[in-house]
Write the structure tokens for this entry.
Amino acid sequence: MIATPERLDLPYTPDVAAATEHLYARVAHSVTRAEWELYAPYIARIEELKREKNAVVLAHHYQTAEIYRCVADIIGDSLSLAQAAEKTDADVIVMCGVHFMAETAKLMNPEKIVLLPDLAAGCSLAESITAADVRALRAEHPGVPVVTYVNTSAAVKAETDVCCTSANAVAVVESLGVPKVIFLPDEYLAAYVASKTNVEIVTWKGHCEVHERFTATEILDLREMHPGIVVLAHPECPPDVLANADFVGSTTAMLGYVKERRPARVAMITECSMAGNLVDAFPEIEFMQPCNLCPHMRRITLPKILRALETMSPQIEVDPAIAGRARLAVERMTAVRRDLASV
Ligand code: 13P
Ligand code: SF4
């Protein structure tokens, strides 16, 4: 019988308990025992199917704990997931993230089957711009290279000179050695990059629907309530939020900060699951609100992952007419050394 995609209705049997008990410790700070009994049958079955189908599960830091810490083989930010997709020997990649991440995985490794457990897992940034918009911008700024955030469709990437993520945006812009670039589609990430480089930046009006909701007032209130709190923010946030943060970086950079510096109290100004996942890894650290939910990331659930592995669908395909050009833009990005990244 194929799993129901919306409901957690597989039985928690003694066999399931025995196969999964060692995993509970990984999520004990964020998942109750009652929740675990709902998740464990799915985790056990997903693990079996991963072995049977030679599948690898890649999960973004914004995935919920039971996915991120119990079924993921590789966790990471957009850049590291793209690199992992390029390198994997598995036959099947299950992307626990959003559509542009699955599409990027397919671009990087077209021979593999790439599954996205819910095709409706989109992104407001990817929705904000079309290939025709990029062509119009090029016509307006002749000869100016286009740097595109990976949070875009393959069709947009195909109109691009080079992609970037929040982990390497400044390094990618500077790697071009030009005085001016068109940087798409995130207006706030573009403003952040502009503040870190002398390269002139032309941008677009796209925003992340999660990060644009944070305000500087929230951070000031937080600092008043919790003196000494360390505030880490994602560069998709508005400029006044970033101006009030102690550290700005990609999701992996924020994780690195917490790992190395171990602040006693921290606010992660980003998607809620990020702090939720760190609670399990660093129970001694106090993670404070605010955080906002990404409705697209939340579409990925254990039943949908199981169903994707059972049915080998939905699969991601990229139109061959654009795949070559889009891949080139992503490959040019991965060729820029990550250790040069300054965002
Ligand atoms: P990174 O994980 O690359 O920092 O990106 C954040 C994001 O919003 C992905 O959707
Ligand atoms: Fe897109 Fe923002 Fe969600 Fe990331 S958090 S997938 S940028 S909407």
